[in-house]
Amino acid sequence: MTATLTQTRAPIAGPRTFTRPGLVRLTGIELRKMADTRAGLWLMIATALISVAIVVIQLFAADPPEQTFVNMFQTTLFPVAVLLPVLGILSVTSEWTQRTALTTFALTPQRQRIVVAKALASVVLGLLALVPSLAFAAIGNAIAGALDPAAGSWSFGGLLLGYAALFNVVNVLFGLAFGMLFMNSAVAIVLYFVVPTVWSLLTTMISGLKTTSEWLDLSVTSTPLFENAALTGGEWAKLAASIGLWVVLPGVVGLIRLLKREVS
């Protein structure tokens, strides 16, 4: 008998192809990175606790007619506007201070895609922040209505919700822009709080800057968003001008810095 041996060869593996992650996946990763750090987690907890405290204070200090769903909802937006932008700052600066930029940009060499993902994650964060604000306001308003018949009005318009979403998103992007501009957590956070405050004080103390503040002070131009009425063309123009100064300009300069900065 003649035995025929058949030698089988293992198939030769072809070159591996790397599929770059999609923008949706990158946005999800950046959103998760905002909450995964200890600083990010405690910032969100602090924001929630302050919002609850504001609602409780209104229940005890505000007059019953002022204890409404709209008033409680609007006041819970202010801690969000102050603290959540810090998450936007840290989403950029932590890449350099924690030395994760090398990994981030090695997996996705196109830095502009990372920036877009961080911006989209900031937008999502600003929108998600509306949920606890609405929940805390609803609980507080229900308690107010149960304690006093003159309180607890549920009147609420969709226009106000849209303006609140815009307010949150602009503020988080404000933080993101400062993070890209300075790329250092301590410097960016300090200047984020100091520079707008000093600018507001100057425009208040110097009468010649009053007209300028009506166009370039974000705290002034965003005030009509809380008046529950449609903004006029002039108000939209002033809001756009202040956003251009505090969000777009530092964001563009920061983007140029980020694209040129050497990763080490």
Describe it.
- Residues 1-6 have low confidence and may be disordered.
- This protein has one domain.
- The longest helix is centred in the first third of the chain and has 29 residues, at 69-97.
- Helix 7 crosses helix 8.
- With 264 residues, it is mainly alpha-helical.
- It is built from 11 helices and no strands.
- Keywords: Membrane, Transmembrane, Transmembrane helix.
- This is ABC-2 family transporter protein.
Fill in the keyword field for this structure:
transmembrane, mainly alpha, 264 residues, 11 helices
| Low-pLDDT runs | 1-6
Helical fraction:
over 70%
Total beta-strand segments: 0
SSE arrangement, N to C: HHHHHHHHHHH
End-to-end gap: 69 Å
* Principal-axes shape call: globular
- Radius of gyration, in angstroms, nearest whole number: 24 Å
Major beta-sheet overview: none
Strand percentage: under 5%
The number of domains is: 1
Furnish the topology, listing elements before pairings.
Layout: H1 23-36, H2 38-61, H3 69-97, H4 101-107, H5 111-128, H6 130-147, H7 158-182, H8 185-205, H9 210-216, H10 218-221, H11 233-260
